[in-house]
Specification:
Blueprint: H1 5-23, H2 30-41, H3 58-70, E1 90-91, E2 96-102, E3 106-117, E4 121-132, E5 141-146, H4 153-163
Helix pairs in contact: 3-4
Length: 168
């Protein structure tokens, strides 16, 4: 088969599209993905989830979106910062991210940090981020966050809205 300019161009375009799709997932390491998510979206639970729709699962988006719409001037499912499980206090440094498990399509990342409350109280805390993707070639998506008390953010929001919220 002779390679005509049209066929050659088509092949280059297909390779370019493949490279672009692969480049869209610039972060393949779950711990690096989690660290990037935290550094760019630390306030995600109180902000419009449309900002992070492309990097979270559809189920997590639906829960966060419902919470966001409910919480306009009201307290709904979330009464504390999901990173700290507290209303007061700060996350100190260093904040470290470690991949605890990675099957290729599901990963668990542990985030540890010193929790600072006042001038003298420091306590080491751990948060677990659950990531998933459809296949090893897809991008990682945040599916849930399990706070220091061991409670799932996703289930907390879904349960509250099922019991106290309105609508589906």
């Amino acid at each position: 088969m002779k390679l005509t300019p049209v066929i050659a161009f088509s092949c280059l375009m297909a390779l370019s599209a493949f490279d672009s799709a692969h480049a869209a997932c610039a972060i393949d390491d779950p711990a690096v993905f989690a660290k990037s998510f935290y550094s760019k979206h630390a306030e995600f639970s109180s902000e419009n989830p449309a900002k992070i729709r492309t990097i979270i699962t559809s189920r997590f988006f639906a829960a966060l979106n419902r919470e966001y719409k409910c919480a306009q001037g009201e307290i709904c499912a979330l009464e504390s910062d999901p990173w700290t499980d507290a209303q007061d206090g700060d996350i100190g440094k260093p904040v470290e991210f470690t991949t605890a498990s990675n099957s290729g399509v599901a990963a668990t990342v542990s985030m540890t940090y010193p929790f600072i409350l006042g001038k003298t109280h420091r306590e080491q805390k751990r948060v677990t981020l659950l990531l998933e993707r459809k296949s090893p070639s897809d991008c990682w998506l945040l599916n849930d966050l399990v706070g220091p008390r061991g409670e799932s953010l996703l289930r907390t929001i879904e349960k509250w809205h099922k019991e106290f919220g309105s609508g589906p």
